[in-house]
Each structure stands twice: as structure tokens, then as C-alpha cells.
Write a structure and sequence with these properties.
This protein is α/β, with parallel strands linked by helices and 291 residues long. It contains ten helices and eight strands.
């Protein structure tokens, strides 16, 4: 049996975006719920987060749902880390929190929003032993004092090692699902297949379940990820280091130029007309043709 990688956009949304029992098991394993507060049932919501200000770009998250308590959940799979990602996560979570109420309704009706972000990159190198990062509003001096509302969780997948986290069995199994299965997998571990929801999630990755067009899109996704990683490594990181050494503004400018290049390349790969790309990015048409 051949499988696809669950971290790709196509597969992640197929597994978690349309199977309630699977996403319930996943969220209960990965989110920091107190005992007795686990999710029992969910309702899928529109993943398109449209801002009230029409000049702001909307974003589409991978999974968005709410449970029978009214709590909202946002799930995203991020392949390449960028410095502004935390702000984007906070913006989307805040937007979901605010939009629970219509005008004139009581604030007591507001329910917490949980944002779960799986990152296939290392963004906290100074914390080598910590892959799980949980943020919420707490009193600076008395951390037991909490304002409930926004719960932001970031998981650094490359740091995860299953051998040292036996006390969180389902969390370990789901993270193994995300990190162990890929195109080279021919047989999935029996301890993963022993759990019905994970087995169902594994079966959804079988290559035979995808059309030729979907498989082409899957391959294109990984090509784009590869380009993004290369550009970020050689452009934004160099720009950042250069900015620290020779002036932050120059470094930021170099990073922005590389980001523009990445956008132009993506649009070119998607077959968008060179004139349109030129208008959006500022590059000359002949520069676009040379990409």
C-alpha cells in the first residue's frame, strides 16, 4: 500500500476537514483541555475568515469548527515558518472570538477560541527540548489569574520525538501520524492502526483514493513548499542577519524583495498572465518571463 503525506494541503484538509470523529480525537489529543472538558461533538464552519475591512486580505484556514459548548476551533498546518505567522494566528483567533456576538448581545455569551497550529519547521531554536507552545492571557505576576478567551497552541513538528512522551498517549500517536507517514511508507505501525480514528485517518491517505489531477496538485504543492523554503533561507534569513549587522531597514527591504519574488514565482507556476503578475508585484514583464 502506498500513502501520501498527511501534512500536504490536499491530504490535511481531506483527513480533518470532513470527518468529525477524526478531528474530535485529534483536537482532544492536542489541545490543553481540563479533565471533563473534552470535545464531544462538532459542527464544521466556513474556513474562510473574511475581514470587516474590505481592504484587508481574507485568509482561509484548514479547519474551522465549534463544539456543543459553543467553543470555536481553528486548525492550520504551516509548512514554512515566517515571523508574521503568530500575528496572523492571533488576528484570526481574535476575529473568530469577536464574531460570536451580534450587536447588543451579552458578553457573557462569548465562548473560548482555540487555535491549533502545526508547524513543519523550527521557530524556537532557543527551546530545543520544547515542541509544544501554549499561549493564553495570564497575569504577569500571578499566573494562576487568567482571562479566558483566546488559546493559541503551536507545535514544532521537527522537534517531536515519541520516546519521551509516553504519558500523553493519544497526543504522541497523532503526532506520529503526522511525522511518520509519507510517500515512502508502505506499512503503517500497528499501534497507530489500533485506534479507530487514526486508522480511518491513515486509510484516507491511500494513494489509490486520489485522482490523477489531485496527485498532480499534491506534487505541485511540495514543489512550491521547496521553493518557499529555499527563498526564505537564502533571502529573508540573510536579509535579517544583514539587517542586524548593517542596519535593520536594509535587511527588511531585502526580505520583502525575496517575498515579492516568491509570490511572483507562485503566480507564474499557476499559469497567471505575466501582465497581471507585473501589476501585482512591480516586476517588469520580461523579468516575469525569465522566472
Amino acid at each position: 500500500m502506498k500513502y501520501l503525506d498527511p501534512k500536504a494541503d490536499l491530504t490535511f484538509k481531506k483527513v480533518f476537514g470532513s470527518q468529525p470523529d477524526v478531528v474530535i480525537s485529534f483536537l482532544n489529543a492536542l489541545l490543553p483541555f481540563e479533565e471533563g472538558r473534552e470535545i464531544k461533538e462538532i459542527e464544521y464552519l466556513n474556513p474562510e475568515m473574511v475581514p470587516e475591512n474590505p481592504l484587508r486580505k481574507h485568509s482561509i484556514v484548514d479547519v474551522r469548527c465549534k463544539d456543543s459548548r459553543g467553543r470555536h476551533f481553528i486548525v492550520e498546518m504551516q509548512m514554512v515558518w515566517s515571523p508574521e505567522f503568530k500575528q496572523r494566528v492571533l488576528f484570526n483567533a481574535s476575529k473568530a472570538y469577536v464574531r460570536q456576538l451580534d450587536s447588543g448581545e451579552d458578553y457573557e455569551l462569548l465562548q473560548p477560541v482555540y487555535s491549533l497550529n502545526l508547524v513543519n519547521d523550527i521557530f524556537e531554536p532557543d527551546l530545543p527540548d520544547t515542541y509544544y507552545h501554549y499561549y493564553r492571557l495570564v497575569h504577569v505576576e500571578h499566573t494562576e489569574k487568567i482571562i479566558d478567551g483566546l488559546h493559541l497552541v503551536f507545535v514544532e513538528l521537527p522537534k517531536f520525538t515519541p520516546h519521551t512522551y509516553a504519558e500523553k498517549k493519544m497526543q504522541v500517536l497523532w503526532l506520529r501520524y503526522l511525522t511518520e507517514i509519507n510517500e515512502h511508507t508502505q506499512e503503517v505501525s500497528a499501534d497507530l492502526m489500533a485506534h479507530p480514528e487514526i486508522r480511518k485517518a491513515v486509510n484516507a491517505l491511500e494513494e489509490s483514493a486520489f485522482s490523477r489531477e489531485q496527485l498532480l496538485g499534491y506534487e505541485k504543492f511540495w514543489d512550491i513548499v521547496s521553493v518557499e523554503k529555499t527563498l526564505f533561507s537564502s533571502g529573508e534569513r540573510k536579509g535579517f542577519e544583514k539587517g542586524r549587522a548593517e542596519g535593520r531597514e536594509e535587511g527588511k527591504a531585502e526580505g520583502r524583495e525575496e517575498e515579492k519574488y516568491a509570490i511572483a514565482l507562485k503566480m507564474r507556476q499557476q499559469g497567471i498572465d505575466s501582465q497581471i503578475i507585473a501589476q501585482c508585484t512591480g516586476f517588469a514583464p520580461e523579468e516575469i518571463e525569465a522566472l
